[in-house]
Amino acid sequence: MNYKFDFGPVIDGLPDLLWGCLGTLGLALAGMVLALVIGIGGVVLRDSPYRGLRWLVISFVELIRNTPFLVQIYFIFFALPLAGIRLDPTPTAIIALGVNGGAYAIEIIRGGVQSISKGQIEAGLALGLHKGQVFRLVVLKPALRAIFPSLTSQFILLTLTTSIASAISAYELTSVAQNIENNSFRSFEVYGVVTLLYLVMSWLMMRMFAQITARHFSYPVK
Amino acid sequence: MNGNEFLFLLNGLKWTVFLSAIGFVCGAASGLGIALARTSGLRPLERATAGYIAVFQGTPLLMQLFVVYYGLALVGLKLDAWLSVAIGFTLHASAFLGEIWRGSIEAVPKGQTEAAKALSLGYVSRMRDVILPQAIKISLPATIGFLVQLIKGTSLAAIVGFTELARAGTIISNQIFKPLLVFGVVGALYFLICWPLSLYGARLERRLAAASH
Q: At B51, which CATH number?
């Protein structure tokens, strides 16, 4: 092996790469917010009395979970203009991430809602708690505790998925890396460093969520 | 879209299935090694495999493919695109399957290991005849879930430049300018492979949950 490593282009591009990290985190955060909105809406529709609506949500979840994100993002990328919606690649990527994450969020949130039994709500009311208190203490907090770990790991997965948004050249870390690579041909150095940056980001997110869990969602209940 | 173009997509599908199969089979073989090392009780071995798993779980699959693809070229290995990509998927699968199977091995009740030791079974026999058969049963739903992830993940080979189903779709779409039709068909083809697997995995999971109550 007589390859000479040259990290020069990567070091020169480091500020751009760090901005790219922020782009990635922003994309993931916006996508996750949209995913939660779709998730909550989906759960409401999923358990609605109308069979057609229930069927629609189930099909949506199955369809998204059994096709690749790359195909989904291409489809949305080409479908939006045909529907008369002209968006830049980055907002398009946010929609695709939200739709993808939303399908998973529906399943996760539904599990949390189902983990609260009716008897507990009745018990809360019988103990003289207000309706608001029952919702906050008996329904919301235990449900959040039940779904928090799955939701946060879904969030981290979504953050890693944003790299695929480079396929439609949305602004995030991978597309920044591809620009540097195109100008320098130092492929291995660039992608090696970028991989490390992703690792640091997901590690930091993991640590942060673990702290939140320990603080707010661990037994004994404070 | 005419017959020839559809055939081109089916040819891409063939490569998708082939890549998934290679990644899964080779990944399973090395994943078993990783799961065993991860539960071996030898600290350095456990640490190393835990690190290996953490790296693959904490980075995007696309980056893993890039690094393997350019890394292999860099150490002087001139490989075909499909082989580099297959190696990438194998490494990726080995880490995820290793982690799934570590969990299943640890989920087998400890009494089983103790009983096997009391019968003076050696490590090989203990694993092969007592622990692994039970662990495999526990791991099946998650393993099938990962297989679906892997099949979907092979679409990223398209970005590296390998012509499987997703890239075949891009090529046809550029030719006939009907992206929605083409990517709709491509999505449907992925769905036809992945959905039955997902249903099967969910059924196994329900059966396992029923058995453990």
A: 1.10.3720.10
